[in-house]
Amino acid sequence: MRLNPVKVVLVLLVALPALAQTASAPKPIDLLKQKLVQISSGVSADWGIYVKSLDTGEEIAINADKVMDTMSTIKIPLMVDVYRQVDAGKI
Fold first, then answer.
1. Which of 8, 13, 26, 72 has its CA at a distance of 20 to 30 angstroms from the CA of residue 47?
2. pTM here?
């Protein structure tokens, strides 16, 4: 059986746009969320993650409204003080 090249081209022209729509690449924010979920599920801890793109306004919220202790946030003012002491030549 010999294929008609014109018919093959017509079928491809009709089918390719439909395939392109279903096989579109995920958005970067969706890839980031997927990776964050993967990382957080691999650690036995309670996570609360919130990310907002300042360029697009897109957001990721994973347990972002969950009430948790703020143990990790103490590191921020401590590091600010360390950097100030480094700038002052004390460290």
1. 26
2. 0.51
